[in-house]
From TrEMBL:
This is peptidylprolyl isomerase. InterPro entries: EF-hand-dom_pair, EF_Hand_1_Ca_BS, EF_hand_dom, FKBP-like_isomerase, PPIase_dom_sf, PPIase_FKBP_dom. It is found in: Endoplasmic reticulum. Keywords: Calcium, Endoplasmic reticulum, Glycoprotein, Isomerase, Metal-binding, Repeat, Rotamase, Signal. The keyword Nucleotidyltransferase does not apply. It comes from Dryobates pubescens. GO terms for cellular component: endoplasmic reticulum. PPIases accelerate the folding of proteins during protein synthesis. Residues 415-450, 460-495 form the EF-hand domain.
Length: 500
């Protein structure tokens, strides 16, 4: 048979062999080798075989059994590893990805997906595989390893495959299942942690910041936001991410942790991407850091309000307050308490982010409130490098300690009493008909010190005075004359007259 390059294939005990060989083969194991001596009466007798075997010849056979099977055999399955958790097993019409080594019964390797470094991907139970493999894969868990032994009539039969597999060969597949899904599958969500307090859940159109670990079903890590030390930030429900993630991020709370299992037709499909193979089920373990909607405004929650709360903060007021600033997940960003001093601003003049200007409105001294600021009213998409992440929702716990009422809008200085009719002459101390910046500054300082006048609180004195002087110095020559000098209410009346 070696000379012919093919095994001898025959049924035993059915008269297809000489009597001696029929007896000699009984009880042999695959890979067993026997030396068989057969007398003429159990071989070709007194006639022999013309030109080959003489009459009355004793025959000697050196036999090596390669394969054996019975027509009543079925597929044999031997599981040698099964995961502790097995939420789902292979069913008919599922799509699977698996690795295998394919051998004959004698251990000869004829094929291996490992050598190709690529899984075998196919539907099960619909005729895409040989019948024995269609049967042998049913009931497997992801991560399970089993030996599937298939008789030839459930494999490639009498003809073989015309390549590596000869006719009538039993096949042995050592299979490791990596992945399975059904084309009808949707995403699966497993809640791992849901905060007790969940005032709002994400909706389509929200902008979400979250951390994730992305793995295949067998646990192979393909990506992680943690390794980049940066959240993944995206709109949800608008097609900015794969369809399965778009759906899986809806209905989450800030601080929630959930597992999202995404079938390939809602992930990266048959082609895959990068480290993600084609037709792969994806598993994302996500942690939602925060989310907001571009239409969101500032949210204010009053935690304490004094019984006497009549004077409320307004634009132009000078405020002193303490705050703790954090992210929605509780991460502390900054605190005036740790610095040991208050934060001081003029309200409504852009000295803080827009959201804080809004959050400090209508507040009385002693009041404590929590102000939640969406990023478009905070530090935007860029954030503050090393301090505030991009697109972060900010939470400020504020206590107002002091309020100095500001001036009417548009004024940087007001009189507390009647304005002198000889105001220009009083400012022009040397009576030369011209007022210099130094004279103007000394006069304004004297009015503030005596209580006759008031400057807008919280601003630099020199800058205010210089700005007032520049407004009066209409020709820009550094001097103010009596003709140039006008009070603000006089200017307003002149403008009204001009309009008339």
């Amino acid at each position: 048979s070696y000379d012919r390059g093919s095994t001898f294939n025959v049924f035993v005990g059915k008269g297809q062999l000489i009597a001696g060989m029929d007896k000699a083969l009984v009880g042999m194991c695959v890979n067993e080798r026997r030396f068989v001596k057969i007398p003429p009466r159990l071989a070709y007798g007194t006639e022999g075989v013309s030109g080959v075997i003489p009459p009355n010849a004793v025959l000697h056979f050196d036999v090596l059994l390669i394969d054996l099977w019975n027509s009543e055999d079925q597929v044999q399955v031997q599981t040698y590893f099964r995961p502790e958790q097995c939420p789902r097993t292979v069913q008919v019409s599922d799509f699977v990805r698996y690795h295998y080594n394919g051998t004959f019964l004698d251990g000869t390797l004829f094929d291996s997906s490992h050598n190709r470094m690529r899984t075998y991907d196919t539907y099960v139970g619909i005729g895409w595989l040989i019948p024995g493999m269609d049967q042998g894969l049913l009931g497997m868990c992801v991560g399970e390893k089993r030996i599937i032994t298939i008789p030839p009539f459930l494999a490639y039969g009498e003809e073989g495959d015309g390549k590596e597999i000869p006719g009538q060969a039993s096949l042995v597949f050592d299979v490791a299942l990596l992945d399975l899904h059904n084309p009808k599958d949707g995403i699966a969500i497993e809640n791992q942690h849901v905060p007790e307090s969940c005032e709002r859940r994400s909706q389509a159109g929200d902008f979400v910041r979250y951390h994730y670990n992305g793995t295949l079903l067998d646990g192979t890590l393909f990506d992680s936001s943690y390794s980049r030390n940066r959240t993944y930030d995206t709109y949800v429900g608008k097609g900015y991410v794969i369809a399965g993630m778009d759906e899986g991020l809806l209905g989450v709370c800030t601080g929630e942790k959930r597992r999202i299992i995404i079938p390939p037709h809602l992930g990266y499909g048959e082609e895959g991407r990068g480290k993600i193979p084609g037709s792969a089920v994806l598993v994302f373990d996500i942690h939602v850091v925060d989310f907001h909607n571009p239409s969101d405004s500032v949210s204010i929650t009053v935690n304490y309000k004094p019984s006497n709360c009549t004077v409320l903060s307004k634009k132009g007021d000078y405020l002193k307050y303490h705050y703790n600033a954090s992210l929605l997940d509780g991460t502390l960003l900054d605190s005036t308490h740790s610095l040991g001093k208050t934060y001081n601003i003029v309200l409504g003049f852009g000295q803080v982010v827009v959201g804080m200007d809004m959050g400090l409105q209508d507040m009385c001294v002693g009041e404590r409130r929590t102000v939640v600021i969406p990023p478009h009213l905070g530090y935007g998409e860029d954030g503050v490098e090393g301090e505030v992440p991009g697109s972060a929702v900010l939470v400020f716990d504020i206590e107002l300690l002091e309020l100095v009422s500001g001036l009417p809008e548009g004024y940087m200085f007001v009189w507390n009493g009647e304005v002198s009719p000889n105001l220009f002459e009083e400012i022009d101390q040397n009576h030369d008909g011209e007022v210099l910046l130094e004279e103007f500054s000394e006069y304004i300082q004297a009015q503030v010190d005596s209580g006759k006048g008031k400057l807008a609180p919280g601003f630099d004195f020199e800058k205010i005075v210089k700005n007032m002087f520049t407004n009066q110095d209409r020709d820009g020559n550094g001097k103010v004359t009596a003709e140039e000098f006008k009070l603000k209410d006089q200017e307003a009346k002149e403008e009204e007259h001009d309009e008339l």
